Amino acid sequence: MPVRYDGRQPQELRPVTVERPFRSAAPGSVLIAAGGTSILCTASVDEEIPPWKKNEETPTGWVTAEYSMLPGSTAPRKRRDRSGKVDGRSTEIQRLIGRSLRSVVDMAALGPRTITVDCDVLEADGGTRTLSITGGFIALVDAVHSLESLNGQARQVFTDSVAAISVGMLDRQILLDLNYYEDSRAEVDMNVVMTGRGHFVEVQGTAEGQTFTRQELDAQLAAAEAGIAGLTSIQKDILGENWPLDSFG
Amino acid sequence: MPVRYDGRQPQELRPVTVERPFRSAAPGSVLIAAGGTSILCTASVDEEIPPWKKNEETPTGWVTAEYSMLPGSTAPRKRRDRSGKVDGRSTEIQRLIGRSLRSVVDMAALGPRTITVDCDVLEADGGTRTLSITGGFIALVDAVHSLESLNGQARQVFTDSVAAISVGMLDRQILLDLNYYEDSRAEVDMNVVMTGRGHFVEVQGTAEGQTFTRQELDAQLAAAEAGIAGLTSIQKDILGENWPLDSFG
Amino acid sequence: MPVRYDGRQPQELRPVTVERPFRSAAPGSVLIAAGGTSILCTASVDEEIPPWKKNEETPTGWVTAEYSMLPGSTAPRKRRDRSGKVDGRSTEIQRLIGRSLRSVVDMAALGPRTITVDCDVLEADGGTRTLSITGGFIALVDAVHSLESLNGQARQVFTDSVAAISVGMLDRQILLDLNYYEDSRAEVDMNVVMTGRGHFVEVQGTAEGQTFTRQELDAQLAAAEAGIAGLTSIQKDILGENWPLDSFG
Amino acid sequence: MPVRYDGRQPQELRPVTVERPFRSAAPGSVLIAAGGTSILCTASVDEEIPPWKKNEETPTGWVTAEYSMLPGSTAPRKRRDRSGKVDGRSTEIQRLIGRSLRSVVDMAALGPRTITVDCDVLEADGGTRTLSITGGFIALVDAVHSLESLNGQARQVFTDSVAAISVGMLDRQILLDLNYYEDSRAEVDMNVVMTGRGHFVEVQGTAEGQTFTRQELDAQLAAAEAGIAGLTSIQKDILGENWPLDSFG
Amino acid sequence: MPVRYDGRQPQELRPVTVERPFRSAAPGSVLIAAGGTSILCTASVDEEIPPWKKNEETPTGWVTAEYSMLPGSTAPRKRRDRSGKVDGRSTEIQRLIGRSLRSVVDMAALGPRTITVDCDVLEADGGTRTLSITGGFIALVDAVHSLESLNGQARQVFTDSVAAISVGMLDRQILLDLNYYEDSRAEVDMNVVMTGRGHFVEVQGTAEGQTFTRQELDAQLAAAEAGIAGLTSIQKDILGENWPLDSFG
Amino acid sequence: MPVRYDGRQPQELRPVTVERPFRSAAPGSVLIAAGGTSILCTASVDEEIPPWKKNEETPTGWVTAEYSMLPGSTAPRKRRDRSGKVDGRSTEIQRLIGRSLRSVVDMAALGPRTITVDCDVLEADGGTRTLSITGGFIALVDAVHSLESLNGQARQVFTDSVAAISVGMLDRQILLDLNYYEDSRAEVDMNVVMTGRGHFVEVQGTAEGQTFTRQELDAQLAAAEAGIAGLTSIQKDILGENWPLDSFG
């Protein structure tokens, strides 16, 4: 089986590095990189909840996310989202990040506050939405652990851990963790979000101008599952004693 | 196994009706309904192509989609998207419809023109994005067949047919074609887009505040596959001799 | 006197059809057509009143309207009003529809609630603003009759009925109910809104690049008056026992 | 017949004053006042034509208008139209001003250029849209006469003069040239645009929450006709030898 | 030393005229002109304070400013700021005007109300931002004196007077009060805001594509100081007994 | 003389660190920090020039800047500038950065291309606009040196170097390089931009609710001059042989 042009095996992850905390005023702050993709994930706490939650009998918390690419993250330079126009791609991505992070949070245990996870891409070389989830989870855990009012019960806010990876098909071969070059040529592009316990949170497989069979779908899911196990292990090492649950991973 | 509150079996489709052509000035125009969901799908032809395609050596065609809900489609009334603000949900949906329709079109055979498929929801009772794809495909075929310049080669523009269905889990039971009541209570919501030949175009499985196992994923995919076979058969009956390819379905 | 290219006499209305209720989640819902113009009029009830009414001593109700053309209603396709930019024509039209409907409603009898009448044009072949008023009135009556809290006093909410028609001059001849072909060539374009009792609500006569004499104005008003009597009779037949006032029409 | 609270007879105009040219960098510039309403009308020339006119075989000219109220023109202060939101009233008014001015211009004689007439209200006490037309016409004539390339043929650009006045009904009495106090209490509000030769350009009669009979309509039109004759005479005096056509007025 | 093309000496102000009150509905209203620059400054009072001031223990007042150029103030015509887009220049200018006026107001003495000073440029020939401050101060004083609730203590609201002037360098010569022709050719453009007592409020010196020495900076400051003394004297004459403080100027 | 609460002398700079290149896809990329303020400055090259430069006989280049604060740069979190609304402060700052950088660039030597310097604040503790200029200059030099078409003439593109610092008055004492705590309490806030040769580019001194004397202005300018000499020396060390001109610094 041929190696990829950056020397990786077809189902090998890019090397991941994490700087934590990174320069920021937020209680959770992580600079995560995978190959040529770098993202600054910060998690800020607001002791308010969204208006639509205020009618709940026992108001619970909320976790939301925003995603943006810095102008210098691509060449040629990417224009800023300042005009108020819809950038459909960013909207889709930040909704995905928010849903993924919420899937492992016990909103009652979090209490009536909002945590916003901002994912600002410094360098974009493929896989920015999945790396945002993997890094955003670490920033979120740190922000929750900064809350003094939780009295040492911060780990109980999490029901599981969460990470994500991309997988796809190029020349009908299954590739894990595609970089930009591979992603732009892939026939199928799939993003998979899973928990540390091995459950699915999101499966988004997309073929543009192509289709894929059930067998190909199964092979991609298997590769993603292995990749996410690797990322979960990295998250656990980094978080140390703040790793949410002893009983898994 | 218990029936659903509208009397359907867990994996039974809602009855589908199609009025074609429906009141419109567009060459493709379909009013498609499934239970309490009704959508007007129109397909308009513009003999221009998008600016970013104009540098292609041999310019090919393009298919795009827009999705909107009429204010009276829900109770309480839905406000219009007029303010220029981002409605993330509509943006996501119309990108999905566009990708799905493009996956079965040979852009070179279509020739340098743009077809816009507009999906305007008249009544919303769940499954609007998938029904937009199923009905939008019919409107698209009609619009292509209205093109005199194709000289009777309209069927060759399509490489396959396409339809879509939702599937999900409610109380850990697999349900096909969820209505609004079921969808708002489901633990997992999955939209599956497949071709008449049985290949996947999109798989979007989402759990908000929940997760699902690989076994549950497989069961949902199987239910969706059966549902789409039923919808493909309805499309074939309606399109008659304009049904794109004899060799399938 | 020569007939028009669609065979009508100069002062003959186009045939009108009404489907009621039409597919919608709103309590009032009418698909009205006149020749090649079709409009979906829905009337939704909101048990709130606008902020500027909240300081009234005895808060009364409000009726407002929105108007929009679906993209497939014209060929070539009409772009959606999504950008937040001012579409002056739509704004003018929906203000006219709102004022016209309010002129026959007793806001105190309606009570502190807002009814929004949405007029979405499916096919546009001239006269969309006047047909919106004629059809919108029917939807509004139906919505008022759906209000259980009125205890059978729904008819008292209306002080009169209202309908509208266009009239104009082409080659200095007076034409009633212009279609798009005629409208785009007319020297004068006039929209007249009248009640079932024969009173005027709005008179909007416009000459672009032309003028008209007082005698020509009078002839147009007479033609409009006859046309509106015909439309009022159609409204009365459709509404049956919900027709607001026995004492007129 | 009782006089009005400012001492006027029911069908008497407010006194009109005109400063010309007024402080501005535009070739046409008029400060027109009627009672407590003051408007700065400027007419600027651009040697371009709108894009949609560029395909004409022999490109002709265009006249357009913009209308705005300065913040200090009302008490309490009026907020500026800066947010990009639709102010329906301003849009309607500037479309009316533009149509009215165009009705007396020979676009071929004007030649391929655009004149923009800006009407900025300094003080608003009723009748701002009609006074904008009356004053805007004077600014427009001045701007046309500033064009050296017309070689002394500036008067031929105009086929007629144009002026406008409001008329309405208050306590069922016909009042000419309503001020703000009267306008806000009127049952019917009508704006009439006529030419110096006595032809109609626009008739906009509006009843909000009221209706009016044919007889009342006729009485209002007669009052407006007399008022416009008075304004035309003022325009003629001011414009002197630039008054467009000797043969009328 | 050579005179300037309009005949002025290098450090001579343009002649200043003030009409007060000018046509407006606001309690403070001034038409100020300096050479070919004319600005309508109005000051309106709102008995509300901004939301961010409402938490103050003893709420004090606020003064803010808006700046806009009328379309006819320049040739070619300036487009209106209607699109909601950022016009950076206008924003900068109105922030400067607001800060300058606030520097001489005792917000506690003003009491919990907001005064908005609108500066609308009728003719622009250089120096619009500084003339807005000089004229805006007069309008502000008038608005404060219109407040009956101050019981004759209006003069105590002001701690000083304020005026502003531009100065710059053209061909390395120091020029005071630049007109547009000079401003567009200047190597350095400086705006200086000072009080009647001779203190600085703002110093904004800008070189685009050039730089300036400390010695040149000192010479410009000296020229500005002399110019502002002249403007202060004009303000004092106009305001008469409303001139804030006897003890200076 | 008392030290400041972070232990600095009144006129002592905060320690400056620079990481270069930092994670980015842009040819110039610098992470610069001064105390608790950190900014990512990237410089991207576009081989186009702005439309308004295209009519120049010999088109020259352009340098522009954008400034934004990441949400996590402040606590509480700062909302993104996405709504299309005017953020006056950001607009002012990015115009200042652009002008400052352009003041030391020979646009003809740069050639017909645009360099955009993006300054994204990661941590904000005062002085973000001045540090953006100091760091942006380094990124700009790097981007210019990445241009192969300049054939080793990159140093000739610069006529000087540029850096900036804030200075102010707190309790009437002159402080250099204010942090956020000091800045929010200062009576006067001044930003000074100077070149390596010691010339002024911008002087912006602002007093809100206070004023300052000429003597105080002079003292602030002297402190700024010393601070900028220190920053210039840091820039020279970092840029090494790319330092623009041997003859200064």
Low-confidence parts of chain A: none
CATH structural fold name of chain A: Ribosomal Protein S5, domain 2
**Percent of residues of chain A in beta strands?**
25-35%
What's the structural domain tally of chain A? 1
Multimeric organization: homohexamer
Going by CATH, the architecture of chain A would be 2-Layer Sandwich
Count of discrete alpha- or pi-helical segments spanning 4 or more residues of chain A: 5
Percentage of residues in helical conformation of chain A = 25-40%
Topology:
The structure is a homohexamer of 249-residue chains.
Chain A: E1 16-19, E2 28-34, E3 37-46, E4 62-69, H1 88-102, H2 107-110, E5 114-123, H3 128-145, E6 162-170, E7 173-176, H4 180-185, E8 188-195, E9 200-207, H5 214-239
Helix pairs in contact in A: 1-3, 3-5
